[in-house]
Amino acid sequence: MDCNEIILSKIIFITGGTKSGKSEFAEYLGKKFHKITYIALSEPRPEDSNWQQKILQHRIRRPKEWDLVETNNLISTLKNEKGPILIDSIGGFIMHYINKNDEDWDKLINLLLDLLKIRENTALIVGEQVGWSLVSEYEIGNKYIERLGNLQNKITKISKENWLTINGRAIKLDNISIEIPT
What is the rounded CA–CA span in Å between residue 164 and residue 21? Predict the structure, then answer.
């Protein structure tokens, strides 16, 4: 990978486990922009009251002047949104395309990464850490974990900043880590 590509990237990647503070930290960083579009990637799930409560908490936290796009079509949204964006979260993208075969999935990931790399404005991306030694007893769970880990590794490599949230704390990984040689 060309070092200039990393330096010129406008991506800030925030990852962490459930209830780690990743969305709150991304929203904190997003408040530094005069105008930002919040891209919520998830299925509506109207029958899931716990999910609806979580969505409500996100809505309450967000500044009212932020634009909101609720979608599962991140590719189309990236093509249309030119200003600063906050994507929450990349796991929604994985779930939307979970049934794609490996060849189609690889094409989709390459397109997504290309669209992220050419952005002229900042993209804050929230990602879930779910694979810390977890092996699902279900094939679809393992497929999700594998695809999420692979995609997040690729996003990390093209991001200008990488953050890990854990227990309500944010750690800038770029300051305390090195890229694992491949």
Answer: 9
Sole residue written with tokens 């094409």? 107
For the stretch 127-171, pLDDT in tens is 999 867 777 788 898 999 999 999 999 999 999 999 999 999 999
Alpha helical stretches, state H, the chain: 3-8, 22-30, 49-61, 74-80, 90-96, 102-117, 139-158, 173-176
For residue 159, count other CB atoms closer than 10 A to its CB. Answer: 22
Query: Which of 22-26, 57-61, 119-123, 149-153 bottoms out in mean pLDDT, i.e. has the lowest?
Result: 57-61
pTM of the model: 0.89
Residue entry with tokens 């804050």 = 124
Pick the CATH number of 3-166 from 3.90.150.10, 3.40.50.300, 3.40.440.10, 3.40.50.1820: 3.40.50.300
Query: What CA–CA distance (Å, rounded) separates 176 from 153?
Result: 17
